[in-house]
Amino acid sequence: MGKPKSLRPFFSFYGGKWRAAPRYPTPRYDTVIEPFAGSAGYSLRYYDRQVILVERDEKVFGTWDYLLKTSEQEILSLPDLEPGQTVDDLTLCQEARWLIGWWLNKGTASPSKTPSAWMRQGTHDTSYWGLTVRERIASQLQYIRHWKIIHGIYADAPDIEATWFVDPPYQEAGKHYRYGSDQIDYASLAEWCRYWQGQVIVCENVGAEWLPFEPYINIKASESSRGGKVSKEAIWLNDVSKNFASPT
To answer: CA triplet 140, 94, 68: central angle to 5 degrees?
Structure first.
């Protein structure tokens, strides 16, 4: 069998762009950088590029760091949760417990410790933690061994020419994250978006003004207890003919 056209998500994250990623511009560079990594939905569509993820949230970073370092055999050996168990009952490293936790309740901003009602009811059981998910993750690890993950903020990304997919917590709707919109200086972020060299794609909701965004697409939000909502997405694309001084 040849390489897959796209990888499936390694975990579900609030506001993830995996489903919508094909509707955004295709990367023009061999390196793709996501300075707000989350579940890296855009990079999963172009996994064979040189991918650099930057993530501030230690739980998201730790999950990716674990995935990039662990073996297929270890993933396959991870246990199911028995009735009444929580991830804290499992004799595993913290990062493995976080990975399992993301699959217990879909589209959350932090890994869960107990299964959601949908998982307990067996609804869409192959979409939650179990053998099918373990096998899928294990089969995909070989394709991300060359990826890199940086624990830090967007300013810690390498200063190189690349395709930048910038999907931060949205200024108005990004309060659900552990490091949400109330902790982002959007004026400073706008400077960095204008500075980064190469192809810069910035996501936001319609109405945001920290860059001159244009309405783009409507997408269904990630699965969650608040699922079914439609997000009115806006986009900003840089002018690659301009050079900018480094933000201070």
So the answer is: 25
Q: What is the amino acid identity at position 172?
A: E
Taking the C-alpha atoms of residue 171 and residue 174, their distance in angstroms, rounded to an integer, is 6
Q: Which residues pair with 52 in a beta bridge?
A: 33, 148
Mean pLDDT in order along the chain per 10 residues (248 residues): 90 89 96 97 98 97 98 97 92 97 89 75 70 96 98 97 96 71 88 97 95 90 55 87 52
On whether the CB atoms of residues 32 and 165 are closer than 8 A, the answer is yes
Would you state the structure tokens that stand for residue 139, as one six-digit string? Answer: 């089969």
Three-state SS for 189? Answer: helix
Burial of 239 (0-12, 13-18, 19+ CB in 10 A): exposed
pTM of the entire structure? Answer: 0.90
Tokens matching residue 20: 């919508």
Beta bridge partners of 201: 165, 237
Quick check: helix, strand or coil at residue 178? coil
Distance of CA 172 to the CA centre of its chain: 19
To the nearest 10 degrees (0 to 180), the angle between helices 58-69 and 94-102 is: 100
Q: Which two tokens stand for residue 42?
A: 């855009």
CA atoms within 13 A on the CB side of 78: 30
